[in-house]
Amino acid sequence: MIDRSAGLLGLPDGWRLGIVPASDTGAVEMALWNLLGPRGVDVLVWESFGRDWATDATSQLGLADTRVLDAPYGRLPDLSAVEDDRDVVFTWNGTTSGVRVPDAEWLRPGRAGLAICDATSAVFAMDLPYERLDVVTWSWQKALGGEAAHGMLALSPRAVERLESQPPPRALPKIFRLTKGGSLIEGVFTGATINTPSMLCVEDALDGLRWAEEIGGLPALIARSEANLAAVADWVGRTPWIDFLPRDAATRSCTSICLSFSAPEVEALDDDRRAALAKRVTGLVDEAGAGHDIGSYRDAPPGLRLWGGATVETDDLESLFPWIEWAYGEAVAEV
Question: What is the pTM of this model?
Fold first, then answer.
């Protein structure tokens, strides 16, 4: 599975890819606890998981030289403020905000700091510029489907060099350790795991990779996801009471597509009534069996979050829109 994933994603020569006994968030935490400390760090925050990484850096790891560059839901922080000599931690795609970084031009070649990227909702759906990244993490759970208890950790040669030459200045639990005696624990990157995953889950993940290869590989996966975003954009364009949470089209996610109710009469409601309206809409759709778990993330502004990854058929997504329109009409009439 390691080789198949690396080949499908086009990981550069010299990169290491391993399975870690943790979810997508756990894979990020492993990277942070092993790598952060030798340099100052910039943590980019524009949704809830980025906030978690900022908490790790400031409260759990207690790193004194930490800058948190943040922005509200729907927007990106000032990427140009990231400094080349500092490590940077960020999500490529904000799962809970529907905001993705449009490119990596702000990560200049030759920068001294490491770029640590949580790519959970981006990998297998977006074209990641690995030449400008050093650590990339994701889980089996998101873009190709699968269970959530194991993550993937990809390390550039620069990240491996950091691990082997600058051991973390903190005690690590066994499950987090990536080095032993100053050398990388090779088993992590050859398929060995501390706890054995279900073989059914492994086969499910392999089945997803085989399917991706059969339909045309990464370009086909990206095209399917972008087609889903385009279908949502077309619907939003002809529906006056809904809009994207991220107003800048260049930053809109093609996987976790976040929408907000934009009619003036809804925007005039207080926070509790807007939240109740959104809950009513999603509840009606769920009760009808037309769409499940389409509400915004609990920490995000009230609205909708539609999954547009490559495993979703565009026709199925389009069939959902009339149900949302019906539910919205019912909910607004009750306000």
Answer: 0.95
